[in-house]
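pipeline: protein-struct stage 2 | run 1193 | OsmC family protein
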Amino acid sequence: MQTTVKWVDGAMSLGESGSGHSVVMDGPEDLGGRNLGPRPMEMLLMGTGGCAMFDVISMLKKSRQPVQDCRVEIQAERADAVPAVFTRLNMHFVVSGAGLKDNHVKRAVELSAEKYCSASIMLGAAGVEITHSYEVADTAAG
């Protein structure tokens, strides 16, 4: 896996993935940016959420659960000193579907956290305190 990040101007950079996809990253105006893209640390959180959500959706589909929607809401805290690394993260999964089984969602979130999500497991190994929570929204109800 490889990527290239190229400086554009001020605090803006353009990241290009090995698969040929590009994303603009930028900083706030007070740090020379123009606020035209997410911050690099936000990208790290989004990537972690995407990695974990992919695991959860894959496992639920394999267990034939009727997933209609899924999102991961991530709350993160960073150190006050430089480097301002992540110190805590909560990944809250909201999974929707008609007749989803709570125990299947719980198990998928646990397996992602403990075994499959490379991004969150890597952050945890670096000392980030990571917690996971979930809720199931049954779209068949009411």
